[in-house]
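task queued by scheduler; priority normal; single chain, no ligands, no partner chains; default sampling; output format set to structure tokens
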Amino acid sequence: MKRINLSAKAVYLLPTLLFVLLLSGCAGFEEKDETLGWSQQKLFTEATDEMRAGNYEKAIKYYEILESRYPYGKYAHQSQLNVAYAYYRFSEPEAALAAADRFIRLHPGHPATAYAYYLRGLTNFTRSLGFLDRFLPTDTAQRDPGAALDSYKDFAEVVRKFPNSEYAADSAQRMLYLRNNLARYEIRVAQYYMKRGAYVAAANRAEYVVQNYQRTPSVRDALSLMIVAYGKLGLVELANDTRRVLALNENNGSLIDDPQQTADKGLTEQVWEFFELDQN
């Protein structure tokens, strides 16, 4: 009678047995979907309650489940907007922008599209400031102006397309701040060129501010920079002409004071408080 080597067979079957046990074990640890059987109304209510409580991650989860199960339901539009807002408050700007863009693309004529543009502006506005600016006041004009420029364009769309919406006035105020800040960024660049001895580049950058950012506090600085740059270049006539323009505007009150130099608080801190960024 042939002897069977049981130990060899056991070794051969061991990997298969371990694989089966592993699968069964993983199945036991699978997270139970608590939303199974929830109606679209319950999903929306639970998501909204979580969002109001500041539990943005869970709110996002519920809103996305709601849209995936009921893409044409009565809460679909509001859920799309709310998930964009939740991403914004959860400090996920790219996801917030993507969600807002999606709403704008899918519903260009929807009454709430104004809010989607406004939310885009808010998201980029906050990115342009930076979270630490709330606690460590810094000169935001030294930052890359990309997010600030995007925010300005978003708010401009609100004002242009939805002038009678409830978001138009606030958008216009934020545009004013952003425009001032963008002008100050150009002044910082011109000052950098001056320090490097690149006087032509400095004069051109300052002239750009005068031409494109009129009625901003930076116009005074731009004219002053132009006078110095023209003097360094030996362009006496241009320097004198610019000096006369500066004096004329000083005398007739056309130049605006820089709030960053006149306020007791840092401008960034004032902006956070004025716009209630912690509350949006």
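post-processing summary
- The radius of gyration is 29 Å.
- Residues 38-90 form one domain.
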